[in-house]
Predict the structure.
Amino acid sequence: MRKRSKRYNEMVKKIDLKKEYSISDAVKNLKTFATAKFDETVDIAVNLGVDPKKSDQMIRGTVSLPHGIGKTVRVLVLCKPIKEQEAKDAGADYVGLEEYIKKIQEGWTDIDVVIATPDVMAEVGKLGKILGTKGLMPNPKSGTVTQDVGKAVKEVKAGRIEFRVEKAGIVHAGIGKISFDENKIADNINAFLSTLLKMKPATVKGQYVKAITVSTTMGLGFKISRNELQALMNYALI
């Protein structure tokens, strides 16, 4: 059985973790109970009623968070020389092809996002075992395999994040920092959930979203209420 810290046990005494909250109230609680000595990440976990084993229920996509994620995103663009300047002008941290393929094969992965042009994917495919296990493999569905590398780099730098459902049917994502204003955290949560709701597969029967929890790196998790979810669903369908 997992042993909880004294700090955690003290926090639990002050809050009802079984209660469901509006997004605004959940964010207020996150702020109140985030007492770590560093700027904690705000995380969201959404339990979906999907079967990830079925290809038509594999939820995967991207969302541009209105206020970013609160950290510098290191971007590598793998492309031929004709696209290098475009990538650099857009703010890519690393740009090239053969030299970076070699570096990655030698163990270098000090990057957060890899973007590639379609014409180099045959060579990038050699890195599948390395990049795939770290969630860095470029993919057209996530917008990281594209001819428009400038646009892709700018979107990632501005706060576009990638997400995908796990085997257990849960989607996790970091959607900002606890130092953000309450309204900015709430905006990012709403943007993420609205995008996820619009992706509901037609083949899903019954409840699509079973539960939503928001938390911080070292803090408590707060459940979002069904009423809040219903309002978001109505908005997403407009």
The longest strand covers residues 41-48. The chain has nine helices and ten strands. The mean pLDDT is 89.
